[in-house]
Amino acid sequence: MTLQAVLAPLFVQVALTFGLLFWLAPLRVGALRRNEVAAREIALGEKAWPPRLQKIANSLDNQFQLPVLFYVLVILAILARKTDLLFVIMSWLFVISRYAHTLVHTGSNDVRVRGPIYGLGLIILVLMWIIFAVRVLLG
């Protein structure tokens, strides 16, 4: 696989993370300016934010959980030269699951929908790691 094909899903995942950050930042500034939350209420924790902002913040925080393992895997797979069409397809499926999870997380936040989407992404990522480990260990 080409480097571009392998890195494209990673770039799209990074775009999701930055997108959430750039969505959240002005909303937080606005909430502070409108006195919807006092600076002292959020200085040691962010649970005082209005619910909509907290949902976005929680989704942003979530981008530093499973996706971190995805980033590491992509880098290792490139270095070990263990990328192929299956790897790229699974990468895209993982990233799609992250976008779907984010849509639910920042929208309805229905855990009955969000949980299975998260689980699907987790299963895809675990399978990617297993396939990678087997390929590396078995040569």
Topology, element by element:
Elements: H1 3-33, H2 39-42, H3 51-62, H4 66-80, H5 85-106, H6 111-138
Helix pairs in contact: 1-3, 1-4, 1-5, 3-5, 4-6, 5-6
Verbal overview:
The chain has 6 helices and no strands. By secondary structure, it is an all-alpha fold. It has one domain (3-19, 51-138). It is elongated, with a radius of gyration of 18 Å.
| Class derived from helix and strand content | mainly alpha
Rg measurement, Å: 18 Å
The span between the termini is 18 Å
Q: How many discrete domains?
A: 1
Shape: elongated
Number of strand segments = 0
Q: Give helix % range.
A: over 70%
Q: Could you tell me the mean pLDDT?
A: 96
Proportion in β-strands: under 5%
Contiguous low-pLDDT stretches (5 residues minimum) are none
Count, helices: 6
Name the helix and strand elements from N-terminus to C-terminus, one letter apiece.
HHHHHH
Characterize the largest beta sheet: strand count, sense, and whether it forms a barrel.
none
Which labels suit this protein?
139 residues; 0% strand; mainly alpha; elongated; single chain; 6 helices
Condensed summary:
By secondary structure, the chain is mostly helical. The chain has helices spanning 3-33, 39-42, 51-62, 66-80, 85-106, 111-138.
